[in-house]
Specification:
Layout (H helix, E strand, L loop, with lengths): L12 E6 L6 H17 L1 E2 L2 E2 L2 E6 L3 E6 L8 H18 L8 E6 L2 E6 H9 L8 E3 L6 H7 L1 E3 L11
Antiparallel strand pairs: 1-5, 2-3, 4-5, 6-7, 8-9
């Protein structure tokens, strides 16, 4: 059951899929159409899942699930992963690789491999004040408060001296 992401409770579980490139406006429109259909039909053991999504910076797909009504099951999570994998194929984009880092350079969102980011930290090309995207947040409240944070406030801090 599709609902507006803004209307999901704060404790709703979130999954963040980070693209290795920026989506075009046309791609975003198509992806939104596909997300609307997928989420509207997403179920767990036949029960509707109250879910919503948002797309941030033309690069991040965030799916939220109100687990107060129905929890995701192995099969429903598998269905969402298959959906994301289909988006990867349709748009020739990587959304599932967790070994990459996105961070802000001014208003631009940069994307680097973890090893490149680590080297940039050694070279002081990024600092503790660099805004990073902490895609490990677990719920909507954490997403809203702790997703875009200085590197010093995220798991990225282990690379910054």
């Amino acid at each position: 059951m599709l609902v507006d992401f803004k209307n999901l409770p704060e404790e709703s579980r979130v999954w963040i899929y980070q693209a290795n490139r920026t989506f075009t406006d046309d791609e975003i429109s198509e992806i939104e159409d596909k997300l609307n259909i997928f989420i509207d039909n997403w179920t767990a053991h036949g029960s509707d899942l109250q879910s919503g999504y948002t797309i941030k910076y033309k690069r991040f797909i965030v799916i939220g699930l109100n687990q107060n009504l129905n929890k995701a099951t192995g099969c429903s999570i598998d269905a969402s992963v298959h959906f994301i994998q289909q988006l990867e194929n349709d748009y020739n984009v990587d959304l599932m690789d967790k070994m990459n880092v996105s961070y802000k350079q001014g208003e631009y969102v940069a994307y680097k491999s973890l090893s490149d980011f680590r080297q940039m930290a050694k070279d002081r090309a990024v600092s503790k004040n660099t805004i990073v995207f902490n895609n490990l947040v677990a719920n909507k409240a954490e997403f809203e408060e702790h997703w875009e944070v200085p590197a010093s406030e995220s798991w990225h801090s282990r690379f910054i001296k």
